[in-house]
Amino acid sequence: MLATALVSGLSLGSIYGLIALGFTLTFAVSGTVNFAQGSSVMLGAVICHALAMGLRWPMPVAVPVALVACAIWGLIVERIAVRPFVARGSNAWLMATVALGIVLDNVVMVLFGKEPRALPSSLADDPWVIGTVGIFPLQVLVPLVGLGLALLVHLGMHRTGLGLKLRAAVENPDAARLMSIDVTMLIALTYAAAALLAGIGGILIAPLYNVAYDMGTLFGIKAFAVAILGGLTNPWGVVIAGLGYGLVEAFATSWLGSGSTQIVTFSAVIAALVLAPSGLFGRRTKVRV
Amino acid sequence: MPTKLTRRQAIALPAGIAVGSLIGRSALAAEPIKIGLVAALSGQSAKSGEGITRGLTIAIDEINAKGGLLGGRMVELVRRDDESNPAKGQTAARELLDKEGVSIIFGGIDSPVSLAIVPIVNGAHVPFMGVWAAATNVTRNGANPNYCFRVSAVDVLVDRALIKYAMTKFGAKKPGLMLINNGWGESNFAGLTAAAEAAGLKLAGTEKFDDKDADMTPQLQRLREAGADTIILVGNSAPGAQVVKGLQKSAWAVPVVSHWGISGGRFPELAGSWASKVHFVQTYSFFGPQNDVGKRVLAAMMAKYPDVKGPGDVTPPVGVANAYDAMQLTALAITKAGSTEGQKLREGLLNIDSYQGLIKNYTKPFSDENHDALNENDYVMVRYNGDQIEPVTG
């Protein structure tokens, strides 16, 4: 039971972490997030399904095209639902991103249909079995991709020129602008990257789950809880929080039964935030008066 | 302004009234009898709604081809999508009653939706005909008079049949239950627990899952470690497929005996290569020797729907067969009642003598004590072969 819960928790947890990384990126640079991040998860899976199953494109082509579409969607979200409100000093982007996500979900519902569909993968058909524990190769790949992408984000932030500009924009946006850094463009890029990460999450989970217009809602909510838990601004913290969340979920089901899963998991989130209000790995904000 | 009628007007006016009255009367005679359907026409169970629609349509086509009912009134189907959502089902039922003036409402696959509609139809004194949802208390709802009827399985009877099948087919001694976490799951929990107890079986455990659960291996592992030798599954196609994927993931080749919710959607596509391992219940199979009604319905299906090329394409058969027989029984009841008025139609249903249907030869299908036309003797066990549903042989 322990091993099964571990496998299940790590693979789902890394998906939550991956999606939550998107929250971290945009929040670190702009102080805003796309509350409809779950819709980007769905978009990646749906476009990949439409190309691979509908148009019979080979996966190595369908996946990058779907991810480019997700990145473009991220740019649209930033341009329509975030930038105009931030420019006016309004917090209405909170509602605008939620609303835009609902619009996307419903457009996809009309175009793709309401029936869940399968996205088969050879990586999720023939499990590796050790004793009574089985694991699909894809379940091993998912945490590796999650950790690999977190490493990429970390390296990108600390070892590249673009990362330097991003960190400058995080530290002091006005000073960054004075240094002719295009902060607006950087924020747009982080939204594109966030949607892309969510799209990767959607494509990875689809063969283990299914593809549906409303598949992103639950993943989006859980990923947001993970992002808050991880400390929002700390990419490694968010990934670790994702894994922790997935493990608590799986162990709660294994030990206490499925009726207790959500009670235990969300109670644990509340308890963790009471003990560490800035998240488990977040920096405490000092306010000088 | 003329105040007196001319002679010509004096003749024309009563003649006009007479002609108008005749036209009015023939318009009334031609007024269609509206049959409502509230079912899942979209979402994970969309195939169930399509199957029910097809069964009703074939029956209605036959009735209308014979000149309709009550002296030439054509029968018309009015459909509403409940999206498997009880609140939407209630809204749809009220609209069908108040705006469309339907004579009867047929229900779909989802027991929670049917259960939500039960008090509305009982309050409105308009009959409800369940043709899929199997929750026991849809028909056994305690209302007097009770307007809910069903040509479908009943959970309490299906549960006995599933336990019996698990024992005889797979030698089950300790089944584990995997149940959807809603009213339908609750209904079956009660039925399966009672059925297992009556059969002298001890259950390995009961696990629940939600419609959107992404991984069900932890629940399955609990049952495995508790010594489950068979899984009894109650759920619709998408979560049912997740259960099967969970088994495949764990390489746990335990026999799975399922209620019929999985046949309402794209189960074989979603469950993948292990879909055919699941044995599940239906009320009818278009495979094998058919009675005259079966031959006629299959031929009509093949003529009307280009995608139906043989018995395996009539999917889900339970939706088609139950809806066809239920519509024919309703037509008999309307004729018997001589009216489409709710109370009379209810009496008409209770007074049907016999009908040679698709599923069986019905004799007094409904009575004051029993509003379910089918029982455990009418169930068949089937499995998927690709997209087709075939009887289990051997």
Secondary-structure topology with pairs:
The complex is a heterodimer of chains A (289) and B (394).
Chain A: H1 2-30, H2 37-54, H3 59-87, H4 93-112, E1 128-130, E2 133-135, H5 137-159, H6 161-171, H7 173-178, H8 183-205, H9 216-230, H10 235-256, H11 261-275
Antiparallel strand pairs in A: 1-2
Helix pairs in contact in A: 1-5, 1-8, 1-9, 1-10, 2-3, 2-4, 2-8, 2-9, 3-4, 3-8, 5-6, 9-10, 10-11
Chain B: H1 7-29, E1 33-39, H2 46-65, E2 75-81, H3 86-100, E3 104-107, H4 111-124, E4 128-130, E5 148-150, H5 155-170, E6 175-180, H6 183-198, E7 205-209, H7 217-225, E8 230-234, H8 237-249, E9 256-258, H9 267-271, E10 278-282, H10 292-304, H11 317-337, H12 342-350, E11 354-356, E12 361-363, E13 380-385, E14 388-391
Parallel strand pairs in B: 1-2, 1-3, 3-4, 4-5, 6-7, 6-8, 8-9, 9-10
Antiparallel strand pairs in B: 10-13, 11-12, 13-14
Helix pairs in contact in B: 2-11, 3-4, 5-6, 11-12
Keywords:
heterodimer; A: 289 residues; mainly alpha; ABC transporter involved in vitamin B12 uptake, BtuC; 11 helices; 2 strands; globular; B: 394 residues; alpha/beta; Rossmann fold; five-stranded parallel beta sheet; 12 helices; 44% helix
Structure description:
The complex is a heterodimer of chains A (289) and B (394). Chain A has 289 residues and is an all-alpha fold. Chain A has a single domain, classed as ABC transporter involved in vitamin B12 uptake, BtuC, CATH 1.10.3470. Chain A is 73% helix and 2% strand. Chain A contains 11 helices and 2 strands. The model of chain A has no long low-confidence stretch (mean pLDDT 89). Chain B is an alpha/beta fold and 394 residues long. Chain B has 2 domains: 209 residues, 3-Layer(aba) Sandwich (Rossmann fold), CATH 3.40.50; 127 residues, Rossmann fold (3-Layer(aba) Sandwich). In chain B, the strands form 3 sheets. In chain B, strands 7-6-8-9-10-13-14 form a 7-stranded mixed beta sheet, sandwiched between helices. A 5-stranded parallel beta sheet of chain B has the order 2-1-3-4-5, sandwiched between helices.
